[in-house]
């Protein structure tokens, strides 16, 4: 028995000894031995770093992005460090925050922050993590509890990059025999760290500054389904010959480092010498070359020479000369930085940018003298739906570090997780039934409808239907109010509502009396109401009853004019204006020659509250009769830019219409117009009268003869304004009424001149292949632009640049001669066109 026990004890001991010997290499790999250069850019933060070894990783091989399996452990045909007598490849990181895991235990809320050219995870931690000394240069912390990158919400991983500090690097001992690694190697090594060591199943955001921004692009290229969003800050997609400025700069730096006598003598084989005998002069020279163009020249010129000369290289410095370069020579190794430059010399992924699926926000300093802004613009154009933000800052390239705090609102908007909107209904329309209320019983809006009543200054009481939704948890959220266009209804703007809710806004969309679900409660009331009456009613409901003291107002077509007048009446209630193909940016004559004996006073405001008089004046135009006579086929043709040839009977394309694309909400509005024909007769009659009469309601506020017209007072509106039109806009300008013909020259140029002259330049965007209903033709793109403007004050894409247009000074400024001439030519009008 003793013999068996002894044998068992012996076997156990033998196994333990064997296990210990097996673990010794792993323990050694976990914390690397002392190298020629430090393991951390900031020694005080070295204790935060963790290390990971990747056996048999192939460096300097070929990558086929279409075949992920082929480069799982490095590029095809690459060299392993083990084959060169080194330990397996090492990488390093600092992780903070709160990991969130899926049902398989994989982390799904990781934010990756890549290292810059000369830095590591600790350097980025020092710059960006809340409470660190580097926050001062960055104008505050970026990462931390409650910060822009919130560690209560995200698991944040600061990464070292292959080739420097805590990652494997030439100064580990191989020097110039180290494999010529690439940016692909950098990313793939850290991908394995995230996947195999940390258990990251999905990257929410990959970002970084300078070379860290460059790596962000590579994350999106190599692992398009692993990364949800990338945010390159001051990165580059090419630093080879396609970017001559960058290539020149870094090759000049390389030449400076190689000018050191020690380098010339050893050709890079100097690790047998003490660190103080390395090519340190060359290192100082190289850093001086790099620093020469790091800041804007005007900024550099403003600094005292006694400060500047600390960054200037001298072979034999005196006093403070080269003072800032001495520390760099002590900290860095020439071979390490030469390899960094070689990586750049061979870097060009411009042809691969189309692979990126991740949501992309490119941030770049406009005055960057290393990595030019124009090249960032070109890169952003090659990535689907990428956004680009340019920063003006005298720090030039070095402004990448404070960049997140300089454009915090834009970044917050970019990384915001959409709030769930689970109670939204599919809009729908039943076939009209005259025995039912068409709007209340047969039309479904995307959200629950509420009702309120208010009186206008004429003492008429109006019932208003509205949707009021919010899915967030703030006590006083930002509010978006939507005012629909002529002939439309609040339910038609469901997609804009949804995006507003997802972005944390409270959204209120109202039906103007006589339209939509406001129609049934106002049947029998006189159609002779003005837009000013409706503004009074809406102000009472929104501000006094609901309690929305200030909001962003969105107006489409007639709703745009409504909002312009509302902002003039109640400036304290309007935070911003979003205007989609707005009426209100032109004027009309009060009297119009339509071929009758005398011109008709069709826009005379004296009968604004006299429906019979309006009907009498407008009857010769035949517009009411024509609208009542429209059939389903007529409506379908017109709504979708078609017309019936009166001679051949064939349906042909038309230059006028509503929808370029048959989207969900385009079909919804079409169906309401078709099915109301057979619906409740009172609601049908009311709808058609309002549709025609509101041409009058709009134009009486925009008369050329009126010295106090809304158009003449536009410059008084101080609220920031985003104005959007489709390039194929069919109704503006109102050529039959005023003779104006060109949207840009006759509408947008004078409007911009008026607003810029008052000091309130608007953002103007014109969308190609889009007509009057932008929110239905391109629902996603337009809704995103609307949200960007509301949340950040900026809009992506091609913005109209009218900065060279002479501005209008004062309310009495003379109109452009060309526009004035066209207005005079518009005295005779084609009423068929007017009936649009």
Automatic annotation (TrEMBL):
Q: Where is the AB hydrolase-1 domain?
A: 149-253, 479-761
Any Pfam family the entry gives: Abhydrolase_1
The molecular function terms of the Gene Ontology recorded here are:
homoserine O-acetyltransferase activity; hydrolase activity
Indicate, by first and last residue, each region the UniProt record lists as having compositional bias (Basic and acidic residues): 814-823
Q: Which UniProt keywords apply?
A: Hydrolase
Report residue spans for region: Disordered. Answer: 808-836
Q: Where is the composition biased (Basic residues)?
A: 824-836
Q: Name one GO biological process term.
A: homoserine metabolic process
| Annotated PANTHER family | HOMOSERINE ACETYLTRANSFERASE FAMILY PROTEIN (AFU_ORTHOLOGUE AFUA_1G15350), HOMOSERINE O-ACETYLTRANSFERASE
Specify the protein name: Alpha/beta hydrolase
State the taxonomy lineage.
Answer: Bacteria, Pseudomonadati, Thermodesulfobacteriota, Desulfobacteria, Desulfobacterales
């Amino acid at each position: 028995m003793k013999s068996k026990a002894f044998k068992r004890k012996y076997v156990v001991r033998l196994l333990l000894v064997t296990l210990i010997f097996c673990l010794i290499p792993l323990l050694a790999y976990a914390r690397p031995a002392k190298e020629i250069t430090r393991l951390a850019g900031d020694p005080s933060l070295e204790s935060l770093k963790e290390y990971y070894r990747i056996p048999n990783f192939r460096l300097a091989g070929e990558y086929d992005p279409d075949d992920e399996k082929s480069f799982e452990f490095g590029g095809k045909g690459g060299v392993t460090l083990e084959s060169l007598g080194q330990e397996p490849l090492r990488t390093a990181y600092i992780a903070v925050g709160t990991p969130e895991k899926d049902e398989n235990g994989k982390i799904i809320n990781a934010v990756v922050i890549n290292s810059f050219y000369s830095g590591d995870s600790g350097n980025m931690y020092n710059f960006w993590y809340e409470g660190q000394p580097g926050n001062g240069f960055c104008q505050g912390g970026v990462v931390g509890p409650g910060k822009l990158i919130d560690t209560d919400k995200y698991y944040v991983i600061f990464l070292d990059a292959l080739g420097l500090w805590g990652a494997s690097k030439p100064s580990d001992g191989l020097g110039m025999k180290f494999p010529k690694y690439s940016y692909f190697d950098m990313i793939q090594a850290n991908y394995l760290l995230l996947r195999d060591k940390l258990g990251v199943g999905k990257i929410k955001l990959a970002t970084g500054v300078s070379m860290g921004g460059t790596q962000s692009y590579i994350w999106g290229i190599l692992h398009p389904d692993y990364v949800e969003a990338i945010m390159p800050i001051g990165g580059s997609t090419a630093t080879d010959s396609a970017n001559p400025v960058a290539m020149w700069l870094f090759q000049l730096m390389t030449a400076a480092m190689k000018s050191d006598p020690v380098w010339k003598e050893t050709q890079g084989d100097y690790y047998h010498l003490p660190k103080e005998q390395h090519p340190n002069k060359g290192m100082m020279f190289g850093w001086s070359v790099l620093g020469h163009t790091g800041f804007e020249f005007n900024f550099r010129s403003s600094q005292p020479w006694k400060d500047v000369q600390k960054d200037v290289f001298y072979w034999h410095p005196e006093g403070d000369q080269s003072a800032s370069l001495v520390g760099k020579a002590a900290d860095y190794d020439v071979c390490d930085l030469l390899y960094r430059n070689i990586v750049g010399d061979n870097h060009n992924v411009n042809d691969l940018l189309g692979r990126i699926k991740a949501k992309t926000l490119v941030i770049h300093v406009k005055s960057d003298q290393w990595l030019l802004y124009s090249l960032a613009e070109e890169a952003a154009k090659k990535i689907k739906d990428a956004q680009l933000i340019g920063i003006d800052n005298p720090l030039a390239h070095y402004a990448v570090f404070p960049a997140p705090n300089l454009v915090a609102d834009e970044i917050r908007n970019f990384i915001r997780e959409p709030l769930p909107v689970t109670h939204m209904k599919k809009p729908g329309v039943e076939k009209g039934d005259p025995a039912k209320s068409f709007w209340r019983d047969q039309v479904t809006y995307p959200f629950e409808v509420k009702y309120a009543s208010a009186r206008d200054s004429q003492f008429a009481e109006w019932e208003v239907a509205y949707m009021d939704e919010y899915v967030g948890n703030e006590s006083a959220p930002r509010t978006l109010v939507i005012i629909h266009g002529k002939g439309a209804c609040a339910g038609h703007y469901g997609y804009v509502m949804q995006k507003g809710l997802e972005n944390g806004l409270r959204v209120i969309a109202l039906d103007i009396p006589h339209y939509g679900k406001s129609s049934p409660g106002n049947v029998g009331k006189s159609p002779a109401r003005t837009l000013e009456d409706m503004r009074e009613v809406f102000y009472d409901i929104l501000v006094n009853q609901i309690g929305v003291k200030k909001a962003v107002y969105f107006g489409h077509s007639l709703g745009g004019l409504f909002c312009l007048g509302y902002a003039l009446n109640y400036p304290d209630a309007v935070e911003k204006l979003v205007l989609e193909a707005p009426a209100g940016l032109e004027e009309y004559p009060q009297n119009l020659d339509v071929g009758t004996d005398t011109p008709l006073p069709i826009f005379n405001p004296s009968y604004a509250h006299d429906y019979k008089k309006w009907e009498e004046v407008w009857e010769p135009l035949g517009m009411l009769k024509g609208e009542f006579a429209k059939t389903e086929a007529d409506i379908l043709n017109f709504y979708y830019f078609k017309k019936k040839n009166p001679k051949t009977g064939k349906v042909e394309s038309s230059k006028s219409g509503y929808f370029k694309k048959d989207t969900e909400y385009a079909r919804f509005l079409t169906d309401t117009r078709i099915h109301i024909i057979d619906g409740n007769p009172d609601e049908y009659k009311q709808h058609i009268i309002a549709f025609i009469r509101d041409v009058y309601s709009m134009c009486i506020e925009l008369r050329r003869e009126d010295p106090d017209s809304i158009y003449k007072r536009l410059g008084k509106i101080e609220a920031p304004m985003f104005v959007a039109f489709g390039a194929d806009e069919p109704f503006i300008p109102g050529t039959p009424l005023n003779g104006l013909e060109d949207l840009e020259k006759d509408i947008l140029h004078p409007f911009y001149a008026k607003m810029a002259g008052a000091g309130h330049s608007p953002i103007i965007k014109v969308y190609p292949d889009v007509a009057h209903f932008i929110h239905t033709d391109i629902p996603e793109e337009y809704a995103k632009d609307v949200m960007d403007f509301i949340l950040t004050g900026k809009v992506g894409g091609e913005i109209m640049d009218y900065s060279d247009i002479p501005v209008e000074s004062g309310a009495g400024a003379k109109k452009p001669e060309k526009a004035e001439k066209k207005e005079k030519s518009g005295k005779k009008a084609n009423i068929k066109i007017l009936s649009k």
